[in-house]
Write a sequence for this structure.
């Protein structure tokens, strides 16, 4: 999936802006929704009963099933309960008309309450990393540690020519191909074949295409994505024009943070470390050599080896 993102990397730039320290924003959060989740416990022992759980926050255009066996492996490796949920407008969680950082933070707070979680280790990949940083800023006492995967908490895109950023391009491509398939009024299985053909022109890697096809489902008798593309597209088109992206990034959270990135990623570079350290002064950095943005899925062994010692 992220090879498609890489192919667009030459037409955009990512810019990190410095954040001034400010008091915590106590604005009332939007009404939350209940998130559909999976819970994994260690296969042996009872240590998890006395340890804070790990909560995984997936990235944009993803879902809890995308992480396959990793939550169970993480539970066994750390002897902790591991939760992974579908964000609103993704997977099995409710589709809404409000996909914003503030609403996502509100959902996670409710998740804590519903599952009687007093404190947790938060792990977020891509957009998930930006979300947990905002949650930790709003609710620092609820976060024991934080693991941000291959994203800058305050990352902002700029382009002198006003071109759309890479994720916007991907979103628009998703809209284009699914609309093409629907307009051809094919049966479900034939529609899947056709969608795969359309993706092939942009995504040459067969494994990546299979990953994208995994993110399709049947909705109202037609092939569709497992995410609310229309609402997410609105979010992407406005996120750099509003204050929402800066929401509560003081950061008041003082706990330990690990930021893990891939050396071949277009979303985080070594030079970004200095600006992150100004936001999170208790942060350490690590990387996986030759890995891209999807390092969680392409380098699962190295990923586990990097994060497990930090958790403990």
């Amino acid at each position: 999936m992220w090879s498609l993102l890489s192919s667009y990397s030459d037409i955009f730039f990512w810019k990190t802006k410095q954040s001034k320290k400010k008091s915590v924003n106590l604005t009332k959060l939007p009404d939350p929704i209940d998130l559909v989740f999976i819970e994994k416990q260690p296969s042996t022992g009872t240590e998890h009963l006395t340890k804070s759980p790990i909560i995984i926050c997936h990235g944009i255009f993803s879902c809890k099933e995308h992480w396959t066996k990793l939550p169970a492996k993480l539970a066994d490796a750390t002897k902790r309960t591991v939760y992974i949920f579908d964000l609103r407008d993704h997977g099995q969680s409710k589709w809404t008309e409000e996909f914003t950082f503030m609403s996502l933070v509100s959902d996670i707070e409710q998740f804590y309450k519903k599952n009687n979680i007093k404190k947790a280790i938060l792990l977020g990949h891509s957009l998930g990393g930006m979300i947990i940083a905002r949650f930790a800023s709003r609710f620092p006492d609820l976060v024991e540690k934080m693991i941000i995967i291959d994203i800058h908490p305050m990352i902002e895109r700029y382009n002198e020519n006003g071109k759309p950023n890479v994720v916007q391009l991907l979103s628009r491509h998703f809209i284009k191909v699914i609309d093409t398939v629907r307009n051809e009024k094919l049966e479900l299985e034939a529609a899947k074949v056709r969608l795969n053909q359309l993706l092939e022109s942009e995504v040459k890697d067969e494994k990546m295409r299979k990953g994208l096809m995994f993110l399709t489902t049947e909705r109202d008798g037609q092939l569709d994505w497992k995410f609310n593309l229309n609402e997410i597209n609105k979010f992407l088109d406005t996120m750099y024009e509003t204050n929402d992206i800066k929401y509560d990034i003081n950061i008041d959270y003082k706990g330990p943070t690990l930021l893990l990135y891939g050396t071949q990623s277009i979303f985080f570079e070594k030079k970004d470390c200095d600006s992150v350290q100004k936001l999170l002064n208790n942060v350490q950095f690590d990387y996986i050599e030759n890995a891209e943005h999807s390092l969680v899925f392409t380098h699962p062994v190295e990923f586990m080896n990097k994060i497990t010692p930090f958790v403990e």
